[in-house]
Amino acid sequence: MPATVTMDEAAAVLRGVERALPASGALRIDASALAVLDTGAIALLLQARRLATSRGLGFELAEVPDKLAALARLYGVATLLGIAGDDKAASRAAAAG
Q: Dihedral (C-alpha) 71, 49, 41, 30: value to the nearest 10 degrees?
């Protein structure tokens, strides 16, 4: 994913995702570069997941920034997108002892 995905960029990014769909296996999206986002990023990821599953592919979202995870939780789609609980907060709490 690019550094910015808002409603303005979502359609163009989705076209790139469509071109990058693998023939088999899973569509893996690395969100580590994502810094500026809005609900367009959520819409993009939901559509990417739909595209993948409609072609019999898995869907994997990796390196999810906190802001994206929080927005996905707010809209109730975190589980659908494969975003687990607040792993970073749990890790910080465990490290703090």
A: 90
Amino acid identity, residue 76? G
User: According to the CATH classification, is domain 4-89 in 2.60.15.10?
Assistant: no
Q: What is the per-residue pLDDT across 29-83, written as a single tens digit (0 to 9) for each?
A: 999 999 999 999 999 999 999 999 999 999 999 999 999 999 999 999 999 999 9
* pLDDT confidence of residue 76: 95
DSSP letters spanning the chain: --SEESHHHHHHHHHHHHHT--SSSEEEEE-TT--EE-HHHHHHHHHHHHHHHHTT-EEEEES--HHHHHHHHHTT-TTTTT--S-HHHHHHHHHH-
The ranges assigned to domains in the chain are: 4-89
Q: What global pTM score does this model have?
A: 0.83
